[in-house]
Specification:
651 residues, alpha+beta, ten-stranded antiparallel sheet, 23 helices, 10 strands, globular, disordered N terminus
Length: 651
């Protein structure tokens, strides 16, 4: 039996008795298909995870938020599609909305066509589970065990259909394990599977909010990676239709996941560069693209019937902010950031970078790493980059296979390779258990409302609850690990403690999504805006204020660059000059004793977290300057001026 090379660096040399193309030949190992057999140990682990997922799905509370696993919110529109496809044979959703509801108030026409912002892929993934759920509902009604209307609208039919997301997530883990097992050892792959299931948002969207599209997207991307990575170095016609079908499903579930199509495209172009395989590669590429486009025809037809165009962004032209991607917040913000809510993924990304640098899986790592970076930019360009009420970075669940590759790459030397030691295994076990404990704590906190939904917030209390230690003060001083190094950069810029990052980053003022009032008041006592250099809150006449201690820093977070005017409410104990930096080229304000409003000129403020500094002369005899608030507003949108209110004359 010829030994198989499993080391990260491959074999140092091909022995003379091995022919070119042997599994231990470095010239070909990066493009050979990995074996499909997982072994009894991995199958046992996957089966155990599947049972746990079913139990978590069955035991979730039937409350307003999760509704016991039934479709709600966005998921209701996916369910309306699968019901219409199977029972009505069309996609005219007016009657489906009448039975199920229309929570987002999509327009409904007299001919039965109705608006739906969501693509068809998730409904297609649920077709098998819906057929089973509908049959069970009808059989139970016929046997007299329960009453069921038989039209797919009963809670029982809806909940059984959602088991399709549990199965989809489990299949995604199976396909991921098959891909990784080709290059990496069984222990590393097994632990990577566990982390992918629990330490990412995948488990949540498979069991607690299964009516959303994320479990289906994880399956579609894992299937595309599996079909691409397990067919050898050539993309022929036979293999092209399988890859094309998975690629079509990927786009039908979540269109932004099209970036994962870079892998099969590169494989086809590389094959076409060799004269001996050029004809077969061109045929494979043509078949792949034809099948993928054919899969997209139904969606284009539905959009043509509904919106009058086959290709569009149904949410509207302002849904994507291509020039103002907040990819950094998608990673680190406490408002659903990937690393903030799933800090173990940070190690996975390090592993992907290591695998892309060297090792037998470097081709796969470079493909998945590039796709992840593009996906990250796309998710940051979405107007509501945080994803509404989301557990973690829900739009990046499709990258689960990327995270699995990274974890398995880091774990392989310690669990299966040449560095295997008992002490190292204990360290890996401790880190893994800590990651799992934190993830489970955050899921429970999110489910029962101890973590607020859809807003920036301090995550330190969740860490304290997870490990039973008073970590809030430590994490305020160091920042939560999921915010590193972004929180350190904020501390360096502003002088605020790193823990303030969780509160300050992730907001959008003046013109945020769903809010176009064009005016905001930033109170000095609010820790979201008042970052550093301000004394304790105290009463000063009719206002609550804070003393400026030499240099005060206020954060002004914006979603897109905006032209803004400003107004500072300041109190001085004696005449003094205050320099305002970060608002245009800088402004000097001459303060008189007492309270006054001081106007700031109209300037274009950049997107992201802008910092406004107030600098006062220091010294023992320096006047005391106190800040009550900073108003920011678009020109012409000052509500005080619109009401005709009389303000103190600006300096």
């Amino acid at each position: 039996m010829v030994p198989r090379c499993t080391g990260l660096r491959g074999c140092t040399a091909a022995p003379p008795w091995r022919a070119p193309g042997d599994p231990c030949d470095n010239r070909r190992i990066a493009s050979l298909p990995p074996p499909r057999r997982l072994g009894p140990g991995l199958w046992l682990l996957l089966g155990f995870l599947g049972v746990l997922a079913l139990l978590a799905f069955a035991l979730q509370p039937d409350d307003r938020f999760t509704q016991g696993g039934r479709p709600h919110g966005d998921g209701l529109y996916h369910y309306a599609q699968v019901r219409s496809l199977v029972l009505d044979g069309d996609l005219r959703l007016a009657d489906d909305y009448a039975r199920l509801g229309n929570p987002h108030h999509q327009p409904v026409r007299a001919d039965g066509w109705a608006g739906n912002h969501f693509t068809l892929g998730t409904a297609l993934v649920w077709v098998p589970s819906f057929v089973v759920a509908h049959a069970v509902s009808r059989l139970g009604d016929a046997a007299g065990w329960w009453e069921d209307p038989g039209d797919g609208s009963s809670p029982r039919c809806q909940r059984l259909t959602m088991l399709g997301s549990v199965v989809a997530a489990w299949l995604a883990l199976v396909l991921m394990a098959r891909v990784l097992r080709g290059w990496l050892g069984p222990r590393a792959v097994g632990l990577a599977v566990v982390l992918a299931a629990v330490a990412t948002p995948l488990g949540w969207y498979a069991t607690q909010q299964p009516s959303w599209s994320h479990a289906a997207s994880a399956l579609a991307v894992a299937g595309l990676v599996h079909a691409t990575a397990t067919g050898g170095p050539q993309l022929g016609a036979h293999r092209g239709w399988r890859v094309g079908a998975w690629l079509g499903l990927v786009v039908l579930v979540r269109p932004q996941d099209l970036v994962f199509g870079l892998g099969p495209l590169w494989l086809a172009l590389r094959s076409a560069s060799r004269p001996a395989s050029r004809r077969e590669a061109v045929r494979g590429l043509a078949v792949m693209l034809a099948v993928a486009l054919l899969c997209l025809v139904p969606q284009a037809w539905v959009w043509q019937q509904t919106y009058g165009s086959p290709w569009l962004v149904p949410q509207g032209p302002e849904f994507m902010r291509w020039g103002s991607s907040q990819w950094d917040l998608v990673l680190w913000s406490s408002r659903g950031g990937l690393l903030a809510w799933s800090p173990a993924v940070g190690l996975a990304l390090v592993g992907v970078a290591a695998a892309a640098r060297r090792g037998p899986a470097r081709g796969l790592a470079r493909w998945l790493g590039a796709a992840f970076l593009l996906e990250l930019y796309l998710c940051g360009a979405v107007d509501d980059w945080w994803g509404g009420w989301a557990f973690g970075a829900r739009r990046l669940v499709s990258a689960t296979v990327v995270f699995g590759l990274g974890w398995a790459t880091l774990l392989h030397p310690w669990l299966d390779g040449e560095r295997r030691r008992r002490s190292a295994s204990l360290l890996v076990a401790a880190l893994s258990l800590g990651s799992l404990r934190l993830s489970l704590q955050m899921q429970g906190d999110y489910l029962y409302g101890r973590l607020r939904r859809g807003v920036p917030q301090s995550l330190a209390p969740a860490w304290s609850r997870a490990f039973g230690l008073p970590l809030d003060g430590v994490l305020e001083a160091t920042g939560t690990p999921g915010s590193w190094p972004a929180s350190w950069w904020l501390a360096l810029r502003s002088g605020a403690p790193p823990g303030r990052y969780d509160l300050a980053e992730g907001w959008a003022l003046v013109r945020s999504r769903g809010d176009a009032k064009g005016y905001e008041r930033l109170w000095a006592e609010d820790p979201r805006w008042a970052l550093s250099g301000l004394g304790p809150v105290h009463a000063r006449g009719e206002h609550r204020a804070r003393t400026i201690e030499g240099r005060a820093v206020i954060g002004v977070p914006l979603r897109i660059p905006l032209r803004l005017e400003g107004r500072l409410r300041l109190h001085a104990s004696a005449p003094v000059t205050v320099r305002v930096q970060g608002w245009g080229e800088g402004t000097e304000l001459l303060l008189r004793p007492g309270w006054h409003d001081h106007a700031l000129p109209s300037v274009v403020m950049p997107d992201g977290l802008g910092l406004v500094e107030l600098v006062v002369a220091q010294g023992s005899d320096a006047p005391v300057v106190e800040l009550a608030w900073l108003d920011v507003f678009e020109p012409g949108r000052d509500p005080m001026a619109e009401r005709g209110a009389t303000d103190p004359e600006p300096s």
